[in-house]
Amino acid sequence: MPSRRVRIAVLTALLVALCGCSAKPPGTVSSASPDTDGASLAAETPSTTPAPDPTHSPEPVAVPNCAELLSLEQVRVTLNDDRVEGPDPLDAIEAPSVVGPAARHTFETATDAVGCSYGIPYSDGGFYVIVLAVDAASASELVSALEASNEYEHTTRGDIAMFSKGVPEGIGTYLGYALDENVWAIVQGTMVSSTTSVNIAADAVTAVLG
Fold this sequence. Notes:
Elements: H1 2-22, H2 34-44, H3 66-69, H4 72-79, E1 85-89, H5 101-108, E2 112-119, E3 126-133, H6 136-148, E4 153-157, E5 160-167, E6 173-180, E7 183-189, H7 194-209
Antiparallel strand pairs: 1-2, 2-3, 3-7, 4-5, 5-6, 6-7
């Protein structure tokens, strides 16, 4: 009998020991829980999201044709002259003869260009509009060069920089520029003034950029 009691006591102690090793008090959370490990890993793992590139350039633009660029009614209202007709596509798109080095470089490196002419039939009154898709960095350099020049009147319309000057050639013309992002519009002719030249140029830039 004593040996049987000893065996029962030993078995009972073994069962208690086994239960004590695996049992957990109610509500106890393991320190090795998957949720905790996942949060810790997320906190220690650096983000792989790329940082914004401050040098990112605007997307290239496509310049619309003359019929879609500026409406005749829009031009007539700007000039306050209902006799104006057009637009007619220019036979050749060339830089104005009075442009400086920065303007010429920007003009010659343009990726797209449209030229349109307007005028009063059977008269010397007329002007042209040239709109170019240009490199944004070149456009920025051109704006800086024009701002530093004492030849141009400088105004703005929102983010659009506008420059104009008189050109004393022949009967005299006015030259107007408008630039924003990667679009440059040029207006020159006898029918435009320092104000209307840049207003038409700015309207053209707005039409391209939407």
